[in-house]
Amino acid sequence: MSKTKTSRNLSQNCKGIACDVCMDISEQAEARGVQTYIQRMNNRPIETCLFGTGGTCCRICSLGPCMIIESAPDTIGICGATADTVAARNFARMVAAGSSAHIDHALEVALGFMATARGETDFEIKDERALHTMAKMYDIEIEGRDKKDIALDVGEKSLAEFGRQEGSLYGLRRAPKKLQEMWERTGVAPRGIQREVVDTMHRTNMGNDQDYRNLIKQATRVALADGWGASMIATGLQDIMFKAPKPIRSTVNVGLGVLSEDKVNITLHGHDPLLVEAMAIVSQEPEIEAAAKKVGAAGVNMVGVCCSGVEGIMRHGIPVAGGLVQQEMVIASGAVEAMVVDIQCIMQSLPEVAKHYHTEVITTSDRAKIVGATHIQVNHHNTLAVAREIILRAVARFPKRGDVHLTENKEEVVVGFTFESVKNMLGGKFRASYKPLNDNIVNGRIRGVGVIVGCSSPRTKAGDDIVTVAKELIKNNVMVVATGCAATECGRAGLLRPEAAMKYAGDGLREVCEAIGMPPALHRGSCVDNSRMLVGCTELVEVGGLGDDFSQLPAAGCAPEWMSEKALAIGQYYVGSGLLVVFGRVFPTSGSKVVTDYLCNGIENDYGGKWAIEEDPIKMAHLMMEHIEKKRDALGINQEKQRVLYDMAMRRDLDKDEGSGIGDVGCAGS
After folding, report:
1. Does 304 fall in a domain?
2. 615: closest CA among 589, 638, 583, 644?
């Protein structure tokens, strides 16, 4: 039997692992001696460690490692730590690690923003509306002031949030008042962004906090420091420097169809928006185009992977070649001259895969160096110069290209649905408002909102669970909002086009989508842009009709194929803000029934939100819908409306109202 056949049979034993196109590319790569994640997963002698999966392996001191079985009292840690303590401690550490990724990202953005405000970088203050939004959050005066002076104040306030030691973060003020009061009452309001990470790592050190409820409390506080602090800062400052995204048409691949056979292909992979912005600018320069033509190429084709792809597509329309699990396949296509990576979600195998092709893997951050890759350091002051150097290196490799394996398949998408752009679509430029959305949730055309986040995973047929959940929600009139690789998978499945409403949406959601011209699933941005959802939920509350707190909203979140600790951090700041979050496949506290029961039930009494675990994607969607219907019942909006005969006075009052229902939605272009 050939290697190709063996790979296909093994992958079928592992529940599919990849889409058919990626399987074909993997087989062709394997024939050249290349290993991708498909072969590595198939060759693993042990599928999972039950202690590690369930969170009851403790290795934070040299007394252990201690592997604890909850039902066996004599397997407690040498220090006496129980399964409950160890599971809660490991959970808190994972949340802190995930938060740290967003926090460090945001800190770099803040430092770059300050340098930009001082005129020391190649970037500028592009979006004054976004600048004024941040200034108002910080109580900074804007009337009659130059934008550079406002930007300097915003930058200083933003940087101060990371080192703050007392009080609470400014970002918390953007939440509904009732939610702010709950955070103060329960003691989870973050005091400072970085302080909460240090606190978490200290209290989870050997011999410190051993009360699982208290450990989860601190996990909530550090997660809130991420969502309402660091991620909100990163998104806000990026919008100011690079302009807040607006709906834009582009393409994502359904089999690497966005790569070009006759152009220099450069893929941007990671999460750093500064590098994406610089590469997008430089790739359009006449000198670059001339250099490409000199080596026989038709030009330069920029393509995104993972969240760098999400940043590129929503601001510049740069097509996306895939998410986390497709990154090796992009190189194995044989069509990529350079894969440029920065931070987060980058597989160490990329240089090994690239050895078999002409591709150069280039790292750009000292936080994410890889043995075998070329390192070219990027900082705030040299971004455009480094971007030119990288692109010219890629151009020089074009003549070395060999056979390529591409398909014609690609899917059109509409992306860039920020909080502001959705308001404009709903109410028009001069009456921008979430009121039409609230009205259509109240009247039942839209049952509620389902948020889908997280990576795609080879533990299932990558992307299938995400798409299955999205389609089931849409079919049942739940509007979907997605970020990161989950959003890319929705795009690959054709759900990010307005036309998708006709094919997949229930009658009510379809009616709204057709009136506005929007897709039934909205692409909201990268993983730090989950903070946009927090702002959106606040708007739903403030517009009225859906309660006065997140915990009353007919909304739920999920991560069907989660992989990263970042997903745990995002989930915990949603839970700590009052929302239901459902995770698929596994949960990192399953080794402790006590801690898992608290996270899935008891925590709701403290913060209004809770976790749920469901592996089956259809059941996951229905669990979310049951939660949404429960919230609708509590709000009283599921009650059948009594027929009212209007007299003339009532009709005049109706005319004075701003309007509601689908008629108001239809005025989006005004």
Report:
1. yes
2. 583
E strand or H helix that includes residue 481: strand 478-482
Non-local (6+) Cβ contacts of 464 within 8 A are: 16, 617
Q: Is 210 a residue whose pLDDT tops 60? A: yes
Q: The CATH number of the domain where 215 resides is what?
A: 1.20.1270.30
Q: How high is the pLDDT of residue 26?
A: 80
Is there a domain that residue 57 lies in? no
Give exposure, 298-330, as e/b (b: 16+ Cβ within 10 Å).
ebbbbbbbbbbbbbbbbbbbbbbbbbbbbbbbb
| Co-location of 237 and 258 in the same domain | no
Q: What is the DSSP string of 387-444?
A: HHHHHHHHHHHGGG-------S-EEEEEE---HHHHHHHHH-SSS--SHHHHHHHHTT
- Asked if residue 256 lies in contact with residue 292, where contact means CB atoms within 8 angstroms, the answer is no
Domain that holds residue 29: 3-42
pLDDT confidence tier of residue 644, bands split at 50, 70 and 90: low
Q: Is residue 648 part of a domain?
A: yes
Q: How many domains does the chain have?
A: 4
Q: What is the pLDDT of residues 456-508, one digit of tens each?
A: 888 777 789 999 999 999 999 999 999 999 999 999 999 999 999 999 999 99
Split at pLDDT 50, 70, 90, the class of 7 is very low
Structure tokens at 520: 């039934």
Adjacency order of strands within the sheet including 521-523: 521-523, 478-482, 448-452, 555-559, 580-583, 610-613
Query: Is 359 found in the same domain as 220?
Result: no
Q: Does 428 share its domain with 292? A: no
pTM of the model: 0.91
Residue 443: both structure tokens together:
């009247």
Handedness of CA 539, 544, 548, 554 (dihedral sign): negative
In angstroms, the CA 247 to CA 488 distance is 15
Helix (H, G, I), strand (E, B) or coil at 146: coil
Contact predicate 406/333, CB 8 Å: yes
- Using CA atoms, how far apart are residues 400 and 517, in angstroms rounded to an integer? 45
| CA–CA dist 417, 421 (Å, integer) | 6
Do residues 304 and 324 touch, judged by C-beta distance below 8 A? Answer: no
Which tens digits make up the pLDDT trace of 350-380?
A: 999 999 999 999 999 999 999 999 999 999 8
Report the largest interatomic distance among the alpha carbons of the chain, rounded to a whole angstrom.
83
Terminal Cα-to-Cα distance of the chain (whole angstroms): 65
Residue 665: predicted pLDDT: 39
Residue where one domain finishes, among candidates 377, 410, 443? 410
Strands 66-67 and 57-58: antiparallel
486/518 same-domain check:
yes
